[in-house]
């Protein structure tokens, strides 16, 4: 009797399990982010792309080694998800999938997202004759934008991403953002930077200006070396314990210009919002201003 009853119930249990699984699968990964997190962010994402051995473009010695160092630096900062794409894993198809599907689907509205790119960049002209930069994937040529990741695509990605704060660090001369330099922090902002964390921001650091080469040496890329030093605390320009993306950008511009003898001029821009990403949180309690 018991065995027969269990045999009758088994199809019902299977159907119920299937319904549960289907309902869970249909819920977006980041949909559970309701209300405010206990800290500044629910989740911290670092996407690190390094391309050294191109199929259709010159190789960049040390690019993958540099990118691995950056990935480890973000792990040391406590980032929850560090996604690494190197050489063949950074193909055009994979990068498009990352920007158009995976990240918009998984990154939540109370997350922070940093994308670091170490590789080639190219330049194209848009329909109005304006120069626009693009990233060159592993299997794409430098002199064609057909399989590239354009500035317009990066802008669209930043608009689609739900992340409260997004920071793009591009170790390449990428331009055409059509924006102005981010304003410096006010005195109030420097004293209570946690207030900036409630406002959306998309910030961009590009390693060089139009027509400039990205400097490298046996010690690696100028920008990456400065980035590693900045993340370790050197970029906390006001010494208040908070490392903001705007501070890091200003630090990288200054350090790279000095290291290159004025031959390489990075840019630090805010292309959306008026907030500021926190990379290292100071000791001040959230919501309380320092007096």
Shape: globular
Radius of gyration: 22 Å
Q: Tell me the helix content.
A: 25-40%
Strand order of the largest sheet: 2-1-3-7-8-12
CATH class: Alpha Beta
Sheet having the most strands:
6 strands, mixed
CATH topology: Rossmann fold
Low-confidence stretches: 1-9, 11-28, 31-35, 185-190, 285-291
Helix and strand sequence? HEHEHEEEEHEHEEEHEHEE
Give me the CATH architecture, please. Answer: 3-Layer(aba) Sandwich
Summarize model confidence as the mean pLDDT: 83
Helix/strand-derived class?
alpha/beta
**Distance between the first and last residues' Cα:** 76 Å
Count of runs of 4 or more consecutive helical residues: 7
Strand content: 15-25%
| Number of distinct beta strands | 13
Count up the domains: 1
Set out the fold topology:
Elements: H1 2-26, E1 44-50, H2 63-76, E2 81-86, H3 92-106, E3 112-118, E4 121-125, E5 131-135, E6 149-150, H4 151-160, E7 165-171, H5 187-191, E8 201-206, E9 216-217, E10 220-221, H6 222-234, E11 243-244, H7 245-259, E12 267-273, E13 278-280
Parallel strand pairs: 1-2, 1-3, 3-7, 7-8
Antiparallel strand pairs: 4-5, 5-6, 8-12, 9-10, 11-13
């Amino acid at each position: 009797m018991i065995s027969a009853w269990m045999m009758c119930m088994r199809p019902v249990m299977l159907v119920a399990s299937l319904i549960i699984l289907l309902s869970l699968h249909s819920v977006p990964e980041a949909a559970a982010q309701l209300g405010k997190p206990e800290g500044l962010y629910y989740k911290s994402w670092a996407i690190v792309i390094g391309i050294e051995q191109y199929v259709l473009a010159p190789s960049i010695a040390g690019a993958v080694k540099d990118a691995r160092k950056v990935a480890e630096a973000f792990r040391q900062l406590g980032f929850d998800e560090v996604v690494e794409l190197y050489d063949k894993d950074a193909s055009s198809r994979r990068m498009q999938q990352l920007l158009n599907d995976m990240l918009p689907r998984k990154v939540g509205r109370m997350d922070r997202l940093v994308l670091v790119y170490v590789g080639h960049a190219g330049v194209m002209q848009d329909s109005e004759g304006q120069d626009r930069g693009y990233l060159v994937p592993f299997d794409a040529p430098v002199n064609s934008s057909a399989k590239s990741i354009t500035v317009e695509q990066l802008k669209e990605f930043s608009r689609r991403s739900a992340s409260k704060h997004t920071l793009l660090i591009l170790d390449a001369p990428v331009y055409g953002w059509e924006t102005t330099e981010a304003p410096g922090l006010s005195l109030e902002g420097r004293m209570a930077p946690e207030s900036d964390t409630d406002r959306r921001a998309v910030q961009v650091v590009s390693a060089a200006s139009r027509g400039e080469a990205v400097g490298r040496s046996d010690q690696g890329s100028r920008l990456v070396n400065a980035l590693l030093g900045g993340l370790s605390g050197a970029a906390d320009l006001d010494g208040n314990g908070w490392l903001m993306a705007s501070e890091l950008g200003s630090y990288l511009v200054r350090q790279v210009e000095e290291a290159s003898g004025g031959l390489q001029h990075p840019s630090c821009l805010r292309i959306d919002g008026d907030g500021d990403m926190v990379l290292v949180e100071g000791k001040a309690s959230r919501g309380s201003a320092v007096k």
